[in-house]
Amino acid sequence: xxxxxxxxxxxxxxxxxxxxxxxxxxxxxxxxxxxxxxxxxxxxxxxxxxxxxxxxxxxxxxxxxxxxxxxxxxxxxxxxxxxxxxxxxxxxxxxxxxxxxxxxxxxxxxxxxxxxxxxxxxxxxxxxxxxxxxxxxxxxxxxxxxxxxxxxxxxxxxxxxxxxxxxxxxxxxxxxxxxxxxxxxxxxxxxxxxxxxxxxxxxxxxxxxxxxxxxxxxxxxxxxxxxxxxxxxxxxxxxxxxxxxxxxxxxxxxxxxxxxxxxxxxxxxxxxxxxxxxxxxxxxxxxxxxxxxxxxxxxxxxxxxxxxxxxxxxxxxxxxxxxxxxxxxxxxxxxxxxxxxxxxxxxxxxxxxxxxxxxxxxxxxxxxxxxxxxxxxxxxxxxxxxxxxxxxxxxxxxxxxxxxxxxxxxxxxxxxxxxxxxxxxxxxxxxxxxxxxxxxxxxxxxxxxxxxxxxxxxxxxxxxxxxxxxxxxxxxxxxxxxxxxxx
Length: 487
Description:
Oligomer: single chain
Number of helices: 12
Strand content: 25-35%
């Protein structure tokens, strides 16, 4: 029986701020440098967490994966799938975040649907549910554990994977194993995150495993369990997916119907209630990269126990995680500290308090500060832009347009723009005229004039855009044509 991987990529990773942000969360980032934990290869040295999750399946017989993500991240997901040669993957867009139980319910319903939005028509595949932000060192052990679980899942069991613990970890939930069941064990109990003395007892006993949040089961078996324990979730998901729409590789569902769905995890909705749960042990060097301390633990360190990434100098510094995305970071006399430098924010935190970074993110969101949502460097389906400078009535951007891509045909009510080409060739449209601009050439777009920018060449197009006007917000865009379907 073939497996349909369901990759959940809808989180925000707030504890990894300022690198992970609402519009560019951790699953789309390359969090571990090429020298960390797993020996690098030409194919894995520069992959995001999502791409690593996809690549991990290469030795497993499976269908094209189904990726579940937020509407706002659809172009990030599509581009990363394309660059790792997974263009045949479908991307299910969640209009609202509702946790894992509804996301998997939608996937199971699609897998059994005859609507044709997934390559195989109505059947009952095994769903392999994976998070897009897990780090696994030993891909072979990962695949072996899944293969051991297939007979259990095919027979109607709901399989979860328990990670063989290496330390008394207080940041994970645990699974207590029961009687042997085939290649696994019946689940005796799910346990919440313990305190340190309890975690030490779990480690010594040998009966407790870290709860990985990975699952394998038939689509029909999961839906039957959901109908028994959370019929409200199932009903809302069924209502939202009566007429799914396929837009290129994106699957869209009914937003209003899904908004009525309760938010719940698979564990709470099904696994902790069912008598059909079994656990298959997995010893694959698994880690949930949920905080900066986890990244420090998983990365190679220098003789002083430091992890340094980017332009970093240290003196009398020990056991620190130090990361620079641009400027020089210099530390003197620090112990057990995390320093993260990005273009618009710097985080300095004691390593033992990195779980509290989410409190800073909450305050940023409440204050409606842009650092909560976006990086200074913002990615778009056509490329990216870096906001180099901003004042009361002006803004300067460094815009990069990928080969063959095009910004929408648009106009602005409140700002004029100057474009200067610094690399590549631009095809510009201003009003009813279209022409080419090469390096060191420029053009001016007055307020209210329809315009477009395209890269017809084979190398990235880079331009400097100077905006001036009374209002410079990104919502001052009226789009007339857009190949990416944006309004």
